[in-house]
Amino acid sequence: MSKLMLKASVNAKVWANTSVERMKARADRGQGAVEYLGIIVVVVAIIGVLMTTNFGNTIAGAITTQIGKITGAGGEGGE
Fold first, then answer.
1. What's the Cα-to-Cα distance from 26 to each of 11, 39, 53, rounded to whole Å?
2. I want to staple 61 with a disulfide (CB 3.0 to 4.6 A). Which of 8, 20, 35, 78 is the partner?
């Protein structure tokens, strides 16, 4: 094997190893984005359920009633 071929072979091997290491490093950073996306999907699903069911209105009424009790501005009815 000539010096030129040996040098080309070593350079190719180094490039391949460096490329693999960079891809592995990127995969770890991308995982955070996927986790954030998962959290956003869960929050959107919860908000969707609260808005489309009476359960959301019940929670809103209870919170309003409690705030009224604390501030003295509301009654028991949650008006």
1. 22, 21, 41
2. 78
**Could you please report the per-residue DSSP string of 23-44?**
HHHHHHHHHHHHHHHHHHHHHH
Question: CA of 18: how far to CAs of 9, 10, 21, 36, in Å?
Answer: 14, 12, 5, 29
Sequence length of the chain is: 79
Q: For residue 23, what are the contacts with CB-CB under 8 A and spacing of at least 6?
A: none
Per residue of the chain (79 residues), give pLDDT as tens: 577 767 777 777 777 777 767 766 665 555 677 788 888 999 888 888 877 888 877 888 899 999 999 998 755 554 4
Sole residue written with tokens 């359920």: 49
Q: Contact, 38 vs 28, CB < 8 A?
A: no
